[in-house]
Specification:
Keywords: ATP-binding, Nucleotide-binding, Transport. The chain is 36% helix and 16% strand. The chain is of the alpha/beta class and 329 residues long. It has a domain at 246-329. Helix 5 (110-120) runs parallel beside helix 7 and helix 7 (157-169) packs parallel to helix 8 (187-204). The relative contact order is 0.14. The chain binds iron/sulfur cluster and magnesium ion. Iron/sulfur cluster binds at residues 248-249, 285, 287-288, 291, 293-294, 298, 303, 315-317.
């Protein structure tokens, strides 16, 4: 895709456990496990709790090192091997966390919270300029300059998440990892924060990795969606296509559980079964104990990636063309 720059390219951090069991397949599978995030897009990673979403997020912002594989940012390995490199990367990446309650220092004034990354990362030193920039950032997230002299407890959950967003923008990052940024908020407030994040993306040309357990939250936010199951990506597709024609049986199960907000008349089904213990995952396709299409091959062999009509999926049934089409209304 010509005008999109690849800013991230992540390979293999997920299938580590497979290496112990089936080394040959691991090598083949790993080549295809990499994904990229393109400049200016939103890629969402979706999965139940325990699927490894937050681990991936932490690796991408350098809070955790992958035990294998490499993460490239703008074509360069993301290795923080010197303090200069670390400072440079930290300016360009930020993270917005799930809880706007836990992530803001309660003893600091809002203006100081927002200014911190700018100061610590050496983006701005002049105090008048810092003040002016904090005022701009407050305005950008829909708060007033006067709010800067208040403390976090004086704000609602949604407003605190606005403060956390202003702080994340303070070092003028290009890439923001958003780890369940709205899941602690009321539904009505969620929509406001998502709209704000979309507006900021357009205005500032930001790239987002958006992590969520909830497909309905990412539906209107993401350009592409990756579905995680037990620490491995099982499907990646364009967001609209994924909702219209999910390929992997696990993606279908997740979609069946999404409330029918568009009133298509589709029946909602609960997600069946429980996510197995990742320490001792099932053999073959780790989804086989929960999959209605599982057969003997599924129990034995780890599925590799196959190209689908809408993206890629790791599923024997999809590869063999034996999964009936699940075209949604
Ligand atoms: Fe189901 Fe087999 Fe596909 Fe796994 S590989 S999702 S068990 S059909
Ligand atoms: Mg998490």
């Amino acid at each position: 895709v010509s005008n999109l720059t690849r800013i991230f390219d992540v390979s293999k951090p997920w299938l580590n456990r497979v290496v112990e069991r089936e080394p040959k397949q691991f090598l083949r599978a790993v080549d295809n496990v990499s994904f990229e995030i393109r400049k200016g897009e939103t890629l969402a990673l979706v999965g139940e709790s325990g699927s490894g979403k937050s681990t991936v997020a932490k690796m991408l912002v350098g809070l955790l090192d992958p035990s294998e594989g490499t993460i490239l940012f703008d074509g360069q390995p993301m290795i923080m091997n010197s303090s200069e490199r670390m400072m440079e990367l930290r300016k360009r990446f930020q993270m917005i966390f799930q809880s706007p309650y836990a992530s803001l220092n309660p003893r600091w004034k809002v203006a100081d919270i927002i200014a911190e990354p700018m100061i610590v990362l050496g983006v701005e030193k002049d105090s008048a300029k810092i003040e002016a920039r904090v005022d701009d950032l407050l305005g950008l997230v829909g708060l007033s300059a006067a709010d800067g002299s208040k403390f976090p407890h004086e704000f609602s959950g949604g407003q605190r998440q606005r403060i956390a967003i202003a702080r994340a923008l303070s070092s003028s990052p290009e890439f923001i990892v958003c780890d369940e940024p709205t899941s602690a908020l009321d539904v009505s407030v969620q929509a406001q924060i998502l709209n704000l994040m979309r507006d900021l993306q357009d205005q500032l040309g930001l790239t987002y990795l958006f992590i969520s357990h909830d497909l309905s939250v990412v539906r209107h936010m993401a350009n592409r969606i990756g579905v995680l199951y037990l620490g491995a990506l099982v499907e990646i597709a364009d967001s609209k296509e994924l909702f219209k024609a999910p390929q992997h049986p696990y993606t279908r199960m997740l979609l069946d559980a999404v409330p029918d907000l568009e009133m298509t008349g589709r029946q909602r089904k609960e997600v069946e079964g429980e996510i197995p213990n990742p320490i001792n995952p099932p053999s073959g396709c780790t989804f086989h104990p929960r999959c209605p299409f599982a057969n003997d091959r599924c129990k034995r062999e780890v599925p590799l990636w196959t190209q689908t009509r809408t993206g890629v999926a790791a599923c024997h049934g999809v590869e063999e063309g034996r999964i009936p089409s699940a075209e949604m209304a």
